[in-house]
Design brief:
The protein is of the alpha+beta class and 605 residues long. The chain has 3 domains: 1-181, Elastase, domain 1, CATH 3.10.170.10; 189-395, no CATH class; 416-482 and 529-603, no CATH class. Helices cover 42% and strands 17% of the residues. The protein contains 18 helices and 17 strands. It has helices at residues 78-82, 91-113, 166-181, 191-209, 213-222, 237-251, 253-269, 285-311, 321-341, 353-367, 376-386, 416-419, 423-432, 478-483, 490-513, 517-522, 558-568, 585-597, and strands spanning 11-17, 32-38, 51-53, 56-57, 62-63, 126-134, 138-141, 146-153, 159-161, 229-231, 318-320, 444-456, 462-476, 530-540, 546-552, 572-575, 578-581. Helix 2 (91-113) packs across helix 9 (321-341). The protein is globular and about 85 Å long. The structure holds zinc ion (ZN). Zinc ion binds at residues 171, 175, 198, 201, 603, 605.
């Protein structure tokens, strides 16, 4: 190989804070971690191929300039890896911490999904403001094409920077990635879908935090009996919950609690129960998201405990702490991959928790058929069942999984190669097979995305798939919806009528005033319409044959219930033209979360 063509390393190591500056080592230094991120030649900013750090503070109008990051881990100031408390005030370090965690999260998604993942907007680079405003707040904004991290005064005159919190950075990055992969999950739908964005971002953030051995080992050391070995009773699920989930919430410190700790503590305190989802308190989306977090994290603790029990010697009474931590991290990593892959198997509209569970089970089964080591699928099903969440589907050979698409599809007129990347070709496939796929006539159909993927299992097994998403929309009058079996809430229909007759009366009045009364009757009024949405994902195997079709019927039985919920939650309104869905739903949702946190506004979303 000639000079200049030496292949560049794929990753580089960067020092970050393991969780946040309040989690210290026994000697008082901040607990740090070294993480591997995709290697690239960064411009000062730092600006890379997917992320652009802009150290601008909108509250003070101050720009701190472009930070040139160290080119390698060896080049970093010694204080960084040492966890010198002074780094909490080092803005160059802030830039590295935010950049590295955003890139690590992106790389985690790209690895799990087996393809590149874009942002939800046209620009290639996500803007990241590490100290973007003075507020106990951090948020993802589609409009601003980026993440904004706030800072605020903490106890004793110390400033708290949300960009230094591992779970906050990963949480916000997950919102950005989820929005890119499932753009319609921000639309008003079921309470589950509204809850999912928040709960899912928490799940990925927590699993990311718990995939760091040093941090888990440190939390275990602080728990009861925490020395370099642990007694059997300290590695049971309940005990691990106390030391790991609560341990983390406690260690976050008072300041960070306002933003994150309270939500984490609440999720971890939700005991298994069949009725949570019907409890009025948990109809409210941000509380409902905590049930998803509780179900995944309790399944994680059970899988961890079972693994430790299965791996120990018959008479063994004590466990080596480091080994316990390593097992936990391996499981956290595998679970994060499972839940990221699950996105490809989730319906593009109207998600419910049971759909998310079946998607996770199926995605994992396809890419990682042998689950004998961690038994993640069994533990997820058991834990979700304990919280009253049943999978949306099941089959004999694989409990909880989506059923294979049984219909014999017509592939005659489509080209397999084009179907891997071309929306028109996928639309052609849909069109030719519209009856077999139960697509509804009278609804507009659009293919949203087509994505070829190569997923790698932990054993090196690779799976080639193509994932296509489509959605359907129909805008119909109350009478037309009735013909499709969809009943609108009677109060809403009355409101539509009232809005329409008011408008009609105003028009007639103005026409009369202009002396054209006769014409007013001649112009027929169009009936007010209400849109209903449906859609699905198509998963094709490596030979271009359809394996799974996960979909929500645009005229299905769930629509009546959904519209009733939207009306009662104030998200559906009537106007003379028809339905109006409440805008900025998530902003309102987060205000409620903030009220739950009591002291500070929490995050945007
Ligand atoms: Zn959020």
């Amino acid at each position: 190989m000639s000079e200049g063509t030496t292949p560049l390393p794929a990753t580089r190591r960067m020092t970050v804070i393991a969780q946040d500056p309040s989690i210290r080592r026994p000697d008082g230094r901040i607990l740090m971690a070294a993480i591997d991120v995709p290697a690239e030649d960064l411009m000062p900013g730092p600006i890379g191929y997917r992320v652009q750090v802009v150290d601008y503070d909108a509250s003070t109008g101050r720009y701190r300039g472009a930070h040139a990051l160290p080119v390698s881990a060896e080049d970093e100031p010694k204080a960084w890896a040492a966890g010198d408390p002074a780094i909490a005030g080092d803005f160059r370090f802030h830039a590295q911490n935010a950049y590295a965690l955003v890139m690590k999260t992106l790389a985690r998604f790209e690895f799990a999904l087996g393809r590149r993942v874009g942002w939800s907007f046209k620009v290639h680079q996500l803007k990241v403001a590490p100290n973007g405003l003075m507020d106990a707040n951090a948020f993802y904004s589609r409009r601003d094409e980026g993440l904004v991290f706030g800072y605020f005064p903490g106890r004793g005159g110390k400033t708290v920077h949300t960009c230094l919190s591992h779970d906050i950075v990963v949480h916000e990055t997950t919102h950005a990635l989820l929005d890119a992969l499932r753009e319609r999950y921000l639309d008003p739908s079921d309470p589950d879908q509204a809850a999912f964005h928040e709960g899912y971002a928490d799940v990925i953030a927590l699993l990311s935090v718990f995939s760091q051995v040093e941090l888990v080992a440190e939390l275990l050391r602080r728990g009861p009996g925490g020395r370099e070995t642990l007694e059997d009773e300290h590695v049971l699920a309940a005990a691990l919950g106390e030391t790991i989930l609560f341990g983390l919430a406690e260690q976050m410190g008072d300041e960070m609690n306002a933003v994150r700790g309270d939500a984490l503590r609440r999720s971890a305190r939700i005991k298994p129960g069949q009725d949570w989802l019907n409890d009025p308190e948990f109809k409210e989306p941000h509380r409902r998201g905590e049930i998803l977090v509780a179900a995944v994290m309790n399944g994680f603790l059970e899988a961890w405990t079972s693994r430790l029990q299965a791996a120990k010697a018959p008479e063994q009474k004590r466990h080596v702490l480091r080994r316990v931590a390593e097992e936990g991290c391996d499981i956290a990593n595998a679970l994060a991959t499972m839940w990221i892959r699950a996105l490809d198997y989730m319906p593009p509209v109207h998600l419910r928790f049971g759909d998310a569970l079946s998607a996770a089970i199926t995605a994992d089964l396809e890419a990682r058929p042998d689950d004998s080591r961690f038994q993640l699928r069994r533990h997820m099903l058991a834990s979700f069942a304990a919280y009253g969440i049943e999978p949306a589907s099941t089959r004999e050979d694989a409990p909880g999984a989506w059923r294979h698409e049984p219909g014999r599809m017509n592939y005659e007129r489509v080209r397999f190669e084009s179907m891997r990347t071309d929306k028109d070709e996928v639309f052609r496939f849909l069109w030719h097979n519209r009856r077999k796929l139960a697509l509804r006539e009278g609804a507009y159909t659009e293919v949203l995305s087509v994505r070829p993927c190569i997923r790698v299992g932990i054993d090196g097994f690779t799976l080639h798939e193509t994932v296509a998403e489509y959605y359907q929309v129909a805008r119909l009058t109350p009478a037309e919806l009735g013909q499709k079996g969809i009943a609108l809430p009677p109060e809403y229909v009355a409101e539509l009528e009232r809005a329409r007759s008011d408008t009609q009366a105003r028009r007639e009045q103005s026409l009369r005033a202009a002396g054209e009364a006769a014409d007013a009757q001649a112009e027929p009024e169009t009936d007010a319409v209400t849109p209903v949405y449906g859609g699905g994902v198509l998963i094709f195997d490596e030979y271009g044959k359809l394996k799974y079709h996960v979909h929500n019927d645009v005229f299905g039985s769930r629509q009546t219930q959904r519209l009733r919920y939207l009306w009662s939650a104030g998200l559906l309104r009537a106007s003379a033209e028809g339905a109006r869905f409440a805008p900025e739903r998530l902003a309102a949702l987060h205000r409620q979360r903030a009220i739950g946190a009591r002291r500070f506004p929490a995050e945007g979303w």
